[in-house]
Amino acid sequence: MQTRYSFGGDEHIFVEVDEEMSLEAFFKSLSMTTAVREADIAGVTEICPANASFQIKFDPDVIAPQVLMDRLKGFEAAAESAEKTIETRIIEIPVLYDDPWTRETLMRFRERHQDPDATDLEYAARVNNYPDVASFIAAHAASPWFVSMVGFVAGLPFTYQLVEREKQIEVPKYLRPRTDTPRLTIGHGGCFGCIYSVRGAGGYQMFGVTPMPIYDPAGKISYLKELMIFRPGDILKFRPIEREEYDATVAAIEDGTFVPKIVPVTFSLDAFTADPAGTNAKLLEALNG
Amino acid sequence: MAERSFEVVKPGLATTVQDLGRPGYYHLGLPLSGAMDRFALIAANRLVGNADGAAGLEAVFLGPELRFSADALVAITGAELPPKLDGVEQPLWTAFAVKAGQVLSFAFLKGGARAYIAIAGGIDVPEVLGSRSTYALGALGGFEGRALKAGDVVPLGAPTGPGREGTSLPKEGRRPVQESGVEIRVVPGLYWHRITEGAQAGFFEDTWKVAPEADRIGYRFRGGKKLDFVPRQQPFGAGSDPSNIVDSCYPYGSIQVPGGTEPIVLHRDAVSGGGYFMIGTVISADMDLIGQLQPHQPVRFQSVTLEEALAARAVEKARLARLAELI
Question: For residues B141 and B132, what is the distance between their CA atoms, to the nearest angstrom?
Answer without folding.
Answer: 6
